[in-house]
Amino acid sequence: MNKTTQPTPAWAVAVAALPTEWFRAARWFQAKAAAVRSIRLVDILDLSSLLPPGSRRLSIALVEVAAGDGSPELYQLPLCLEPDGGMGPGPSFAVGAGWTVREALEEPALHAVMIRLMSEGRTLAGGRGTFHFESFPSSLWRQVHPLAQNSTNSLMLVKADVVCKFIRRLPAGQSPELEMNRIFAAAGTFQNLAPLEGALSYRDAGGREYTLVITRRYVENQGDLWHGTLSFLSHWLHLLAETGPETSTEPAREDALNYLDRVRRLAKVLAMMHRTLSAEGLGAAFAPEPITPADLAHWSGAMAAGAVAVLDKLAAREPGSNPATRDVPEELPEMRRQILAAFSRLTGLRPDGWIKCRVHGDFHLGQILLVGDDCFVMDFEGEPLKAAAQRVAKYSPLKDVAGLLRSFHYAMCAALYDWKERHPLPREAFNALECRLAEWNRSVEQIFRETYFAEMGWIENAGLSEFLAVLKLEKAVYELDYEINNRPAWLPIPSSGIRACLKEILQT
What we know:
- This protein is α+β, with helices and mostly antiparallel strands.
- The chain has helices spanning 11-16, 20-25, 108-119, 176-187, 225-243, 253-277, 293-315, 328-344, 388-391, 398-422, 427-456, 462-486, 492-507, and strands at 36-46, 57-67, 73-83, 92-95, 99-103, 123-125, 130-133, 144-146, 154-158, 162-166, 196-203, 209-217, 289-290, 355-356, 368-371, 374-377.
């Protein structure tokens, strides 16, 4: 019997053949730092019968993965099962005799059949639940290639006019992004985002709903503002290196003015988004509410608990070889004391006239598309490490402001550290460059804050300034947790961010 006539393995067998190392290496897998205990197939949508005749099989698999000492989490895996010798992209893994399994994201046939199902508004039965395809334009997609993977989900460009987001880690409930986009479409007052096209959802036997795929119209763009900022700073660092960091060299005037114009426009776009989300008449789930002292006390406690968990995780790590983190074990007790003291200051603020509403929740430079002279907002899923209930909780709009201000600082540090790796510098020269970029960061933050508060019609008094400073610290602690799990080599960046935030708070 040759390998092409071997019996087709069951999908459960194919899922069992996926090595734990493959999960831990995937950007979308959250528990990279933990050992995978178990992998279990929960349900499968086998699309093979809808494909042209052939031996290859395609499916959408829902897989429960348990890692470390945490609870199992549900993930979506588009899979391709084919005879040995297939030429598909990406790594493949042997399944029994004569078959291999691999990820199917770059298979045009997968997207073509999904388009047909969406256009028909079909609902299909899986093994234990149902898969619902929402209405979608009927044109077929045939050109498929991956976009730059800068998030915890997987983005695919299809036929150069539609982007499909496959949500990989699946919390129960409708995706916040799908929910938010429907609100924006209904309100009609915020249009700085790509139009929503359709979605695929799953409902299990217990009635719980999960959003699997969100599709939206592709918008011609010049990339995201994170990479735009890194390019701008890299060019400036080249100029400084040529003249010496102690000189008064500034970025090219046109580049600098264009960047600051971008910052002002972004402040206006964010304010427009927040005015839409805080408007009346959006329904109970979106209706704005006053912030109370009880809210501040709750947030203060949650921040403190989260910080303790992150710092305990950091304390359990080996110091490593990076000079910037060698002293962290000795610094941790004092850092912990200062962070908890800073968070406790929330309870002393008076939130008179402050409001909470639905917010983006994970707002940073990588979530902003440069579209001509404008800025479009992407990805309303919230922070990847937060629980589903926290992603949809109402919060101060300043949470998004804090996230963006931290992102400016993060980009500054990332550009500087990248430059240092490629161009070794004496400590004095590095410090001089750091001071120059820190001045730039303070200027950008000031311009953004002034524009945003003016657009919101708010006066940035001492209370709001301190609230914003504490929210920036909360974001820096979150960044520390993210890098522990994903990029330990980047730990010096959130560590320096925490020190900068503490300095700001202690001076207020």
